[in-house]
Amino acid sequence: MEENLQQDKLSSFSFASRKLPEYMCHHLVRCSRCDVVYADRPPSQGELAQAYHTADYDSSEEANDAAASYAAAIRPVLAQLPQRGSALEIGTGTGIFLEHLGQEGFSDLAGVEPSTAAVASAPAHRRAWIREAMFVEDDYAPRSFDLICCFMTMEHVRDPLEIARSASRLLRPGGAFVTVTHDYHSWVNKLLGKRSPIIDVEHLQLFSQASLQHLFTGAGFTRFGARPFVNRYSLRYWTRLAPLPSGPKAQLSKVLDATGIGRSRLGVNVGNTIAHGFVPG
Questions:
Q1: Does Membrane appear among the keywords (predicted)?
Q2: pLDDT tier at 21 (50, 70, 90 boundaries)?
Q3: How far is CA 118 from the centre of its chain?
Q4: Long-range contacts of 158-161 (CB under 8 A, 24+ apart)
């Protein structure tokens, strides 16, 4: 896919989570060996750190909905853990998913998030769990976690294999690494093509189940598994993502808000994949 970056359209929300689709992208190519789609001329690590550090945040409602979907989808993995002591979430946002992990029995919760605005939006008790920074392996002790999660974040990093290998070194034997990513082979993304929300300036990688398996096994994980799952969001948010002209989309959003229908939740499989692997124990 050819590069499509329009500097005049970039804003403080361009690197924010669950934003309005902009349909801009880097030059993307597909690896014929592992099936990953990736930007072959990505921004520098410094540019990415600055972009995410200054990004705005206005998606608490959607983050809460997403965390509930992730919590339901991850339970079969949690059932296979030898213990539920400590957990780390890379790209934690406001830390809402850490709340769910606490309810699942984890006693030591940690998150890392580069966006100042997202961390500031977290309630005080969650901010105590969150390190405001880009993820760096050396900030944590080896073999110190039972679970590491990285939801809708692997697409945003320069080197996903480096992240996965770091996770394998930070996990205790028997611990699990769990990701949620977009599947560019899913029916909805094939149908929408370049009008899919996954075509985005933030995305330096796009995965498939085959490329995820290559990633996890390359990082030393065993017992790999991946499957699509259902996300539940408000009709108002699904409308935000729809590839409609801005005028009709705005009018439809007004009708949904005025009638209250926009607050209704709808579960849809939009091609998101939850994948996991375990450190040999």
A1: no
A2: confident
A3: 14
A4: 158/42, 158/43, 158/45, 158/48, 158/204, 160/36, 160/205, 160/215, 161/215, 161/218, 161/219
Backbone angles phi, psi at 16, to 5 degrees: -95, 155
Residues 6+ apart with CB under 8 A from 123: 94
Q: What is the DSSP letter of 44?
A: P
Domain assignment of residue 100, given as a range: 35-234+270-278
CA distance 59 to 118: 9
Question: Which amino acid would we find at residue 200?
Answer: D
Q: Phi/psi class of residue 95: alpha, beta or left (left: φ > 0; alpha: ψ in -120 to 50)?
A: left
Q: Would 166 be classed as within a structural domain? A: yes
Q: Residue 248: how many CB atoms within 10 A of its CB?
A: 10
Give yes or no for residue 270 having a pLDDT over 90.
no
Under the banding of pLDDT at 50, 70 and 90, the label for residue 263 is confident
From CA 221, how far away is CA 213, in angstroms rounded?
9
- Rounded Cα distance between 10 and 51, Å, is 11
Residue 3 forms part of a structural domain: no
Q: Based on the structure, what is the number of domains in the chain?
A: 1
Share of the chain above pLDDT 90, in %: 70
Which element (helix H / strand E) includes 150? strand 145-151
Which of 36-50, 129-143, 170-184, 233-247 is predicted with the least confidence, judged by mean pLDDT? 233-247
- The structure tokens listed for 29 are 């190519």
pTM: 0.93
Three-class secondary structure of residue 252 per DSSP: helix
Handedness of CA 208, 45, 2, 188 (dihedral sign): positive
